[in-house]
UniProtKB/TrEMBL annotation:
Pfam families found in the cross-reference section: Vut_1
Membrane topology of this protein: Multi-pass membrane protein
Protein name, as recorded: Probable queuosine precursor transporter
Location(s) in or outside the cell: Cell membrane
NCBIfam families in alphabetical order: queuosine precursor transporter
Length: 240
C-alpha cells in the first residue's frame, strides 16, 4: 500500500510546532520580569525608556513560527496549532500552580520566591490568554487573506502586515485587561495610571514591530530551506 507523501509530520513541520510551543511556554514563565530599554531619542508617551514584560521577546517568536507554518502548511493547519496551543496554556498553568501549592522540602529554594517568579497573577493570566487567542487567530487569518491576492509572491508583505496588526491587537488587549480592566472590575492586580498603561502599550508594540520587520529574512530563509527539500510535505497555502 503506497503512502501519500506528506501524510505524516515531517522534521520541519515538527520543528516549527516545537518552536511555537517552546516560545509560548517561555513567554508564560518570563512574564513576571519587567524589562527596561533606553533609546537615544525621545518617543511620545514613553520618552527615552521602553518598559515591557520579559514575555514580549519570547512571544514575538511565536509569530515567526506561526507565519512560517501558515506559509508552508496552510491556514487550517496553522489555526489548529494556534488553538491547540491555547488549550496547552492551561496545562502549563495547572502544572506551575500545582507545583507552587505542593509542600516544599527543607533543601528547596524559598517557596515564596518560587511562587513570586512563576506564579502569574490572575489579571496577567486573563490578559495574556485573551490576547493570545484573539491575536494569534487574527495573524493566521490576515496572513492568508493577503496570500489569496499575492500567491507565493510578497512573503515579506504578509509576514510584516499580519504580525504588525496582530501584535498591536495583542498588546492593547493584554495591557488593558491586565492593568486596567481586570483590576477595576474584578479587584485583582493593581490599576495603573492611564499614562503608565499607554507607556506599556507603546513600549511593547515598538519592540514587537521591530522584531516583526527584522525577522522577515529569517522567515524567508526557513521557507526557502523547507521548500528546497523536494517533497517535504508542504501544501499550497492558498488552497489548504
Amino acid at each position: 500500500m503506497t503512502q501519500t507523501r506528506g501524510a505524516h509530520p515531517t522534521v520541519p513541520q515538527v520543528s516549527l510546532i516545537g518552536l511555537f510551543v517552546a516560545a509560548l511556554v517561555t513567554a508564560q514563565l518570563t512574564a513576571s520580569k519587567v524589562l527596561a530599554f533606553s533609546v537615544p531619542f525621545s518617543i511620545p508617551i514613553t520618552g527615552s525608556d521602553l518598559v515591557l514584560p520579559g514575555a514580549a521577546l519570547a512571544y514575538a517568536l511565536t509569530f515567526l513560527a506561526s507565519d512560517c507554518y501558515a506559509e508552508l502548511y496552510g491556514r487550517r493547519a496553522a489555526q489548529i496549532v494556534v488553538n491547540v496551543a491555547f488549550v496547552l496554556n492551561f496545562v502549563v498553568l495547572a502544572l506551575v500552580w500545582s507545583t507552587i501549592a505542593a509542600p516544599a522540602a527543607e533543601t528547596s529554594i524559598d517557596p515564596g520566591a518560587f511562587a513570586n517568579v512563576l506564579g502569574a497573577s490572575t489579571n496577567v493570566v486573563l490578559g495574556s490568554l485573551l490576547a493570545y487567542v484573539v491575536s494569534q487567530n487574527w495573524d493566521v487569518i490576515v496572513f492568508h487573506r493577503i496570500r489569496e491576492y499575492t500567491g507565493r509572491d510578497h512573503l515579506w508583505l504578509r509576514n510584516v502586515a499580519s504580525t504588525a496588526s496582530s501584535q498591536a491587537i495583542d498588546t492593547v488587549i493584554f495591557v488593558s485587561i491586565a492593568f486596567a480592566v481586570a483590576p477595576s472590575l474584578l479587584g485583582v492586580g493593581v490599576v495603573l495610571p492611564l499614562e503608565v498603561v499607554l507607556s506599556l502599550i507603546v513600549g511593547q508594540y515598538l519592540l514587537k514591530l521591530a522584531i516583526a520587520v527584522l525577522d522577515t529574512p529569517v522567515v524567508y530563509a526557513i521557507v526557502y530551506l523547507v521548500r528546497s527539500r523536494r517533497g517535504v510535505g508542504t501544501e499550497d497555502a492558498a488552497t489548504a
